[in-house]
Amino acid sequence: MTAWGNSGDESVLYLRTMENQSKAFRKATYAMIGTIVGAGTFALPAALRSMGLLAGSLAYWCIALVVLATDLIYVDVVLHSRSMGHKRFPGYAGAAFGHGAKILAYVTVWAQTMGACLAYLVLGGEFLALLAKHLGLPVQTVLWQLLFWAAGAAVVFVGLKLVARVESWMTLGKILLILLCVAWFAWRSDGTLFYSAHWTAVMPLIGVFLFSLSGWAVVPEVAELCGKDKRRTQLAVAWGALISSMLMWLFGVFVYAALDVTLAANSVDYSSSMPGWLFWLIPLVGFLAVATPFITLSQDFKATLHLDAGLSKHAAWAVTLGGPLILLILTSRNFLSTVDFVGGIVTSLNAVFLCAVAIQLMRHDKNASRLWRSAVPLVCAAAYALVFVWKVLRF
After folding, report:
1. What CATH number should be reported for the domain holding residue 152?
2. Does 12 have pLDDT greater than 70?
3. Could you give the angle at the alpha carbon of 192 between the alpha carbons of 188 and 193, nearest 5°?
4. Could you tell me if 122 and 333 are in contact, meaning their C-beta atoms sit under 8 angstroms apart?
5. Cα angle at 19 between 240 and 7, to 5 degrees?
6. Non-local CB neighbours of 277 within 8 Å, separated by 6+ positions
7. Is 354 contained in some domain?
8. Buried b / exposed e along 348-358 (16+ C-beta atoms within 10 A)
9. Has residue 64 been placed in a domain?
10. What is the span of the domain harbouring residue 125?
11. H/E stretch holding 301
12. Are 282 and 41 in contact (CB under 8 A)?
């Protein structure tokens, strides 16, 4: 009886453990998707129109592979040493190159986070204003942008547990609604546009792709959700990145192919071909697309300031959420130029820095091949450096 009883208890414990791991894996994958599928999604149709679908799609998937490799490289950095605890990127930079590199990482991560959150605020308010217009509410965009900021700031203030719970449900809804949009626009697409290519127009908006696809900031959170198990973390990161890349590409391709003539370069209202009863679809997809990464990135930078810089939670929250609000008030709020600038200059610079940190920390790792710990980060760094230099020279 005792043997059978122990065996039964062990089986129940094993099943519960597997169920918990499966749930954690799904949350980790959702966190990755929720962070990546954001404001850049709504810049893709304009970018693809400028480049042509053939040239734009080829460039997009090349960047997607480089970004995926970078995400997986960062997994190795995050899980390199248990002694690093719950650090974020500045902590890893400091471990690799010293205190000066840590300070520099604070600056570059702050710049990327503020630029991205500014884009989310701009678009989040515009989508809420579109909904308000159809519902007969006040449509002043700036008021809805401030409301979007206030709601996001409140969620981030509460903490990680609520953030993760809200994030998972919002991400699932976002996936389903994006697929609905893709199905609608695919039915109305102009097939002749699929062979268009304007190769000289690829580099001017390549920053849009880098901004859209970048998700490595959430890798430490993914690792935490996966119990710092390297294999599960790699799978969650890879699945999340690939699903996000495909969702955004499909959205960009079919919105452009359906709305070529009426597509405005700096507009986010893609509802012109939809019946009146679907007025809510694009604004709701857009709101979910920017709300989840706004929450995730803000939470990550708040954790960075708290865990690595030693600020109190309240001070970290104020610095993190105050920056985007100030930028919203001071800037012109042009989302396409903001996305391209942040992606082409700030994101690419940060990615070069990340690759250098990875090479430094992993150089003595006997469990990784020389190709993975040196050659792959070098290739990725070279790609990002090319974009950065080109953008700076053209700025």
Report:
1. 1.20.1740.10
2. no
3. 80
4. yes
5. 150
6. none
7. yes
8. bbbbbbbbbbb
9. yes
10. 27-394
11. helix 281-307
12. no
DSSP string over 358-379: HHHHHTT-TTS-HIIIIIHHHH
CA-based torsion, 57, 63, 65, 71: positive or negative: negative
Burial of 334 (0-12, 13-18, 19+ CB in 10 A): middle
Mean pLDDT of the chain, nearest integer: 85
132 contacts: CB under 8 Å, gap ≥ 6:
138, 139, 144
Residue 267 lies in a domain: yes
Read off the amino acid at residue 302: K
The Cα–Cα gap between 80 and 128 comes to 42
Count of domains forming the chain: 1
* 300-325 exposure pattern, b = at least 16 Cβ within 10 A, e = fewer: bbbbbbbbbbebeeeebbbebbebbb
3-class state of residue 290 by DSSP: helix
pLDDT for the residue numbered 293: 84
Q: How far apart are CA 192 and CA 204, in angstroms?
A: 24
Query: What is the per-residue DSSP string for 331-351?
Result: S---HHHHHHHIIIIIIHHHH
Give CA–CA dist 208/186, Å, rounded: 22
User: For residue 181, which phi and psi values (nearest 5 degrees)?
Assistant: -60, -45
Q: 264-315: per-residue pLDDT in tens?
A: 666 677 876 677 777 888 888 888 888 878 887 888 888 888 877 788 988 9
| pLDDT of 209 | 96
Convert the pLDDT of each residue in 143-186 to its tens digit: 999 999 999 898 888 765 555 566 677 788 889 989 999 999 99
Phi, psi of 126 (to 5 degrees): -65, -40
- Within a domain: residue 7? no
Contacts of residue 201, Cβ cutoff 8 Å, sequence gap at least 6: 50, 51, 52, 55
